[in-house]
Specification:
The protein is of the alpha+beta class. The chain has eleven helices and 18 strands.
């Protein structure tokens, strides 16, 4: 329901933009508590993300940074859709990525000494001073100074450093998958220092059903795969590489948390409802769960729920409200929004569905 590209929903009045449907009756769609807490906005975005090519290296602001940046760019008169705009709304954007196929991502910084070891294999002669910083400076200072140096290099030096690193990385592809990705990224983004990011950021491989949570301030990118992406309702993206779009370096360094971050994979946790398992995150705006119904196992929603968005990933199911609502068939690829006012509902059939709802409306 982000105003930049709202989904269309089929109602008794035909197809309508979701943000407008919510605006007309936010309490019926979101529920009283969620409507009040999130200012009559659907607080999350729910997507099927297909990364055929690597996406840009990016970071999202925290809530205070988003509000400050949005107000600053408004005062400067930068159009909301202008190319010089970094903050398109005053909201933060924590996100969850759950793998549908095998999924490859970069997430958070490696420990500086680990990054130095990998960098030394392919860049020692052209980045000797920068690698030395990684080895001797305090972690946050080392990572910040390293990035400041490589991002500020002139175009000719970037081309030399990245080209040599990619050529050498091909000879080390069997040692570590990070080197394979350096070579692969160079094919798509020659001359972009983001090509070096697999050596500095954690390389994460998710098997289907595994997920990762991206908090504000954490540098990341998605390299390849299909996943369910659930995030706070925001379009604030600060890019740092692997992109043809704007790279706002002052804002990049203001928002990014330059500290090592261990990767924690999230697996769905069973709850009281036998057909459902939940991906736990600290986000108040959203919660993702996977629902598996089969012969003898149905899903029954709570009566005091908020709004739900469901997408059927495989099989066939039937969703029925318990207030006399009509039966609605769901097949692979179909999605449905169940307003809070519809009350409790039941899902039967042989199917797997993902469910997005508000994380904590209270």
């Amino acid at each position: 329901a982000h105003p930049g590209a709202p989904s269309q929903v089929f109602t008794d009045r035909g197809w309508q933009p979701l943000d407008q449907v919510i605006e007309k009756d936010p309490v019926s769609i979101l529920g009283k508590a969620a409507a009040k807490k999130f200012s009559h906005r659907l607080p999350f975005l729910f997507k099927v993300l297909a990364a055929e090519c690597p996406l840009s290296i990016q970071v999202h602001p925290n809530l205070e940074q988003a509000r400050t940046g949005f107000e600053r760019e408004n005062r400067l008169g930068i159009p909301l859709n202008g190319t010089g705009r970094s903050y398109r709304d005053p909201h933060h954007k924590p996100e969850l990525l759950c793998a549908v196929t095998r999924f490859v991502a970069l997430k958070g910084f490696r420990p500086p000494e680990e990054a130095a070891r990998l960098m030394r294999s392919v860049c020692q002669d052209v980045l000797a001073e920068e690698i030395a910083w990684l080895e001797r400076e305090p972690e946050d200072t080392a990572l910040r100074n390293f990035f400041a140096s490589i991002l500020s290099m002139d175009a000719l030096r970037k081309e030399e450093v990245v080209g040599k690193a990619a050529t050498r990385a091909r000879t080390y592809e069997d040692r570590d998958p990070a080197f394979r990705w350096v070579a692969a990224l160079h094919q798509t983004y020659p001359g972009d220092v983001g090509v070096l990011s697999p050596l500095v950021l954690n390389l994460v491989i998710l098997e289907p059903g595994e997920a990762i949570y991206i908090p504000p301030g954490e540098l990341h990118t998605y390299l390849k795969g299909v996943g369910m992406e659930l995030m706070a309702n925001s379009d604030n993206v600060i890019r740092g590489g692997l992109t043809q779009k704007q790279v706002n370096l002052p804002e990049f360094f203001r928002v990014t948390a330059f500290r090592p971050a261990a990767v924690r994979k999230i697996r769905p946790r069973p709850v009281d409802e036998p057909a459902e398992a939940v991906y736990e995150t600290p986000a108040a705006e959203f919660r993702l769960s996977v629902i598996t119904v089969s012969d003898g196992i149905s899903f029954m929603s709570r009566a005091d729920r908020t709004t739900d968005i469901l997408i059927c990933m495989q099989g066939k199911a039937r969703i029925q409200g318990l207030k006399g609502n009509d039966l609605e068939p769901l097949e692979k690829g179909a999605s449905v929004l169940v307003p809070a006012a519809a009350g409790p509902y039941r899902i039967d059939g042989e199917a797997t569905l993902y469910r997005a709802t508000v994380g904590d409306p209270v």
